[in-house]
Structure formats: C-alpha cells, structure tokens
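2024-03-11 09:14:02 DEBUG pipeline.ingest accepted 1 chain
2024-03-11 09:14:02 DEBUG pipeline.ingest length=274
2024-03-11 09:14:03 DEBUG pipeline.predict start
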Amino acid sequence: MFQDIAPKVFDNHYNRKTAPSKDDYVVIYHDRKAVLYKGKQLPRYKEVTAQWHFDLEQYTYLFSIDQSRFYLIEDPVVETTDYRYEDVGTFRHLDPEWLGYAGATACHLASWYAANRFCGRCGHQMGRETEERALKCPNCHREIFPTIAPAIIVGVTNGDRLLLTRNLNGYRRRTLISGYVEVGESMEATVQREVAEEVGLAVHNIRYYASQPWAFSGSVLMGFFADLNEELAIQLERDELANAAWYDRKDLPKDDTTLSLTWRMIEAFRHAEV
C-alpha cells in the first residue's frame, strides 16, 4: 500500500529546531498544490534557495524518511519554466513511490497549517509549539493538533461473493463501501450504518483487516470485512452510488493501482485469504 515504504523508515518525531541542509526536500504548498520540478520531482533545499529567497524561519520541519528531511514553505512562489505547482493528486503517481507518499503526507500537514492560521475561538493568530506538533493561541490558550478524519472501508461478503460499488461522482472504478465515522460511533457501528445507508443491507461478524493513512482526504482508513445477514435486494443510495453488484471471486475486476487499502482488500478476497 501507499505507506509501505520499507526498508525506508518514516519518522514523524517533531523537531522544530532542525535546520535544513542542501539535500533535504522542500514542499512549497498553496491551495492543494505543491511545486514540483518538471512535474516529477520534489525540489531539494539547494534547488529552492537557487530559485527563491526565504528566511530560515519560514521553513517548517515536517518529518524524515531515512536521512532525508522534509520541510514546508507556506508562502506562494512565482512559478518558473521548470518549477510549477501541481495538484496534490500527482503524488499518487510519483516515482519513486516512497517520495510520493512523503509528498502527500507533507501536504496533509500543510493543509492543516493553512486551515488553522487563526484561532477559531477568539480570532488571534496561532503560535507554534516548540516541543510538539501543535498550534496554540497566545490569547485564549486554545491548543489544536493535526486533524485526522477516521473512516471505514468494508468488504461485504456473501459466501464466495463480494459486494462492489461504483460512485456516482469522482472515483469511477469499482470499489468497496466506505464512509466517515460520526460522533459517538464505534467503527463497527459505522460499518453497519454505511452498509445500511448505501445498499440497504444488514451485516454481522464484522472483523478488522488493516488500516491506511490517506493524506489526500486527511483520513486514516480502517478496513473491515463483514458477512451479509440475509440475501435481500440491494436498495441503492442513488445520491452517492451509480450501482452496486455481487462478484464471485473469479470475476472480481482487476485494478492497476496497488496503493490503496481497497485494492489490498479486494485482492485478499480474490485469493481466499479472508
């Protein structure tokens, strides 16, 4: 999956005092876009300093992968022929994949910083803590941490069949039922609610499979499998889904992307691993 970058090691310990060196990577972020070199590479510190001028205080340390550190610049820059803003989704296809994962994760943090420049309680500009990744209001002392939205993905099974859906808008490939956790819900309750809402079915024997951070939606995804209670007609939620259908293991559609938890779950069912 996207986060599986071994043997490389992702380290998100916060160290605000770390200064960038020439080969460290810099994510220049603005409005869900990041600057890439020729649409393919994250710029390094030495390349950024050759193109634009920033004070050291403008570089925010994010995390490291092995010996490579990643920094954020939040101020917009003037694009050049080679260095241009690209949509965050570009990181899904970046080569090598570990650098795409790093870029997407950096943009998750960048989006959080951008959305919390000012205190939501009193309106003062937020300050940055030195010992942990947090923002604190100097006026009312409100403290906030990076926002992560929990969501579930569920593979609904009926013997040797798996239920696949297709969204009405956005992502058009066949996928699994998914949805965000509501306030006061357990993960298992979310599974039951989403299945009932999207296809009008009931499930039991809900079992955890795996999880995945998904920076593109600021989420952490938790995958479950669940068994169908009884074979009833699908009642499609037509505001969200174009269709839903049962597929035998041998007839499950192939997907050319291996990044997502959904792909891993479908493959696990295809090969009778669950």
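2024-03-11 09:14:41 DEBUG pipeline.report The chain has three domains: 10-115, 117-146, 149-270.
2024-03-11 09:14:41 DEBUG pipeline.predict end
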